[in-house]
Amino acid sequence: MSDDGKDDGRAPDFAMQRAVEILAQVYEANRARRNVPPAPLDRPVVLANEALVFALGATTRADVERTFGVAFAYPMRGWHTYAAREDGQRYFLSLFYGAERGLVAVEYYVPKADRAPTLAARDYGPFRLSPGDVALGASTASLDARYVTAVGGPAPVVYAEAYEARWDGGVAYVMGNGGRVERLGLYAAT
User: Fold this and answer.
1) Do the strands 89-98 and 170-177 form a parallel or antiparallel pair, or are they unpaired?
2) How far apart are CA 136 and CA 129, in angstroms?
3) Where are the domains of the chain?
């Protein structure tokens, strides 16, 4: 084809034709794959540090406030957020409680919004997602087999990578960019 879109009689570029065939095969293989969540774990995933274990449905607001004090309402009404300092980095710990269900969501993450509040970060000790001992800043390649590519989970708008582990009471997400973990989240099943 010439630049004006007319057929100029040249033979097709076989390398390009082969590349298109390979891409079509990859597309068809992925299209045939079912969008099914992984098998559930036999125990809940928790976020823990030296002072407290954050377990969905079990940890209460009173437990958290007794250990960490009163939180700041961020990113919106209903969320309770603390600024944590770990390994010289500033992270946010955000919690959401149900009326009578205790903790229903917890997120530990690198704040990305330019308008994130300038809360004073406190050293609460390292937080880890368990099982798997997953930490912020860790390599996503180091995740164990319990964490698989997320199915129907977070869209790749802020995070290019998303992994999940499910259990009967909820789902855990590990999200990141550039091969590094930037957000840990636990959400109760609805």
Assistant:
1) unpaired
2) 9
3) 46-188
H/E run at residue 171? strand 170-177
Tokens of 189: 């099943």
d(CA 150, CA 40): 13
pLDDT digits (tens, 9 = 90+) for 141-157: 999 989 998 877 666 77
Phi, psi of 17 (to 5 degrees): -60, -40
How much is the pTM? 0.78
pLDDT, tens digit, 9 for 90 and up, residues 90-124? 999 999 999 877 999 999 999 987 778 888 899 99
Q: Does the pLDDT at position 30 exceed 60? A: no
Q: Rounded to an integer, what distance in angstroms lies between the CA atom of residue 162 and that of residue 150? A: 5
Average pLDDT for the chain = 86
Print burial letters for 2-25: b (CB count within 10 Å at least 16), e (below 16). eeeeeeeeeeeeeeeeeeeeeeee
| CA–CA dist 6, 4 (Å, integer) | 6
- Nearest CA-CA partner of 63 in 103, 29, 96, 98: 103
